[in-house]
């Protein structure tokens, strides 16, 4: 088992202040030979032996084998030793999948993004719901409500259609992109979109680009409005300040 820095320095009779100065290079000279962050020659030998026996292993696997032998060394210490010997293996990182957008929207009213964020009104928690067109970045509808449920999601989408002059009976309604919150995934919401003939799609887990326009909007409004105000005195003020 590894030991915390506090226990390690206490066992060696070293004060935490001295440990801090040594680790940040404030003391003169190199680390003292007994400092817990300095590997002993016999520890170098163990790392070298394990690497020579299994040259295909990287530093984390080697650290695990050494720890199983009863000697605790950090993975970073093992890596530093391997790098000093020219044995560290480089690897290319896979491109992050969230950097590539899932959809390419080329005109208005093809896809709308829906989400909500918290706001404080008279010290109580309320929610701001927005509906944003992915192409024009226009907020086509928004609501300020004390709670979020399937009925609010349905009403928000209907208000968006009304504001853009899209008939409920029209074909080719905008697809709604939302996260997997229960108001969005409930059978009430799914049935509503099925009856309306509109598509409902969900953002993938840990893929912020699937609803990037909406996420960016909330990042801006939080920094420039919500966080600055803190708590609005009443719902009317909260609605007016947001541009209602």
**H/I helix tally:** 10
Main sheet makeup: 6 strands, mixed
The count of domains is 2
DSSP helix fraction: 40-55%
Distance between the termini: 59 Å
**What is the annotated CATH architecture of the largest domain?**
2-Layer Sandwich
Tell me the Rg in angstroms: 29 Å
Number of strands: 6
Question: Care to describe what's here?
Answer:
- By secondary structure, the protein is an alpha/beta fold.
- The chain folds into 2 domains: 5-84, no CATH class; 111-241, Nucleotidyltransferase, domain 5 (2-Layer Sandwich), CATH 3.30.420.10.
- It is built from 10 helices and 6 strands.
- It has helices spanning 5-11, 16-23, 41-53, 59-68, 75-84, 150-163, 182-185, 187-196, 212-229, 235-241, and strands at 111-121, 124-133, 139-145, 175-178, 200-202, 231-232.
- Strands 1, 2, 3, 4, 5 and 6 form a 6-stranded mixed sheet that branches.
- Strand 2 (124-133) and strand 3 form a beta hairpin.
- Helix 3 crosses helix 4 and helix 6 (150-163) packs parallel to helix 8 (187-196).
- The protein is elongated.
- It starts with a helix and ends with a helix.
- The mean pLDDT is 86.
């Amino acid at each position: 088992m590894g030991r915390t820095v506090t226990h390690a320095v206490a066992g060696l009779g070293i004060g935490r202040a001295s440990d801090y100065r040594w680790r940040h290079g404030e003391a003169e000279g190199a680390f003292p030979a007994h400092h817990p962050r300095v590997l002993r020659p016999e520890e170098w030998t163990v790392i070298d032996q394990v690497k020579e026996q299994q040259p295909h292993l990287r530093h984390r696997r080697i650290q695990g084998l050494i720890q199983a032998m009863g000697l605790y060394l950090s993975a970073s210490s093992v890596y530093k030793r391997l790098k000093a010997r020219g044995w560290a293996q480089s690897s290319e990182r896979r491109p992050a999948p969230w950097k590539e957008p899932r959809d390419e929207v080329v005109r208005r009213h093809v896809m709308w993004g829906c989400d909500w964020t918290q706001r404080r009104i008279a010290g109580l928690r309320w929610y701001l719901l927005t509906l944003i067109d992915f192409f024009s970045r226009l907020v086509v509808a928004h609501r300020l409500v004390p709670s979020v449920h399937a009925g609010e999601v349905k009403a928000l989408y209907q208000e968006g259609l009304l504001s853009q002059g899209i008939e409920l009976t029209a074909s080719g309604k905008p697809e709604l992109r939302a996260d997997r919150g229960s108001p969005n995934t409930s059978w009430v919401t799914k049935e509503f979109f099925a009856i309306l003939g509109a598509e409902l799609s969900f953002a993938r887990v840990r893929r912020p680009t699937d609803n990037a326009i909406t996420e960016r909007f909330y990042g801006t409004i939080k920094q420039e409005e919500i966080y600055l105000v803190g708590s609005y005195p009443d719902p009317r003020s909260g609605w007016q300040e947001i541009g209602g």
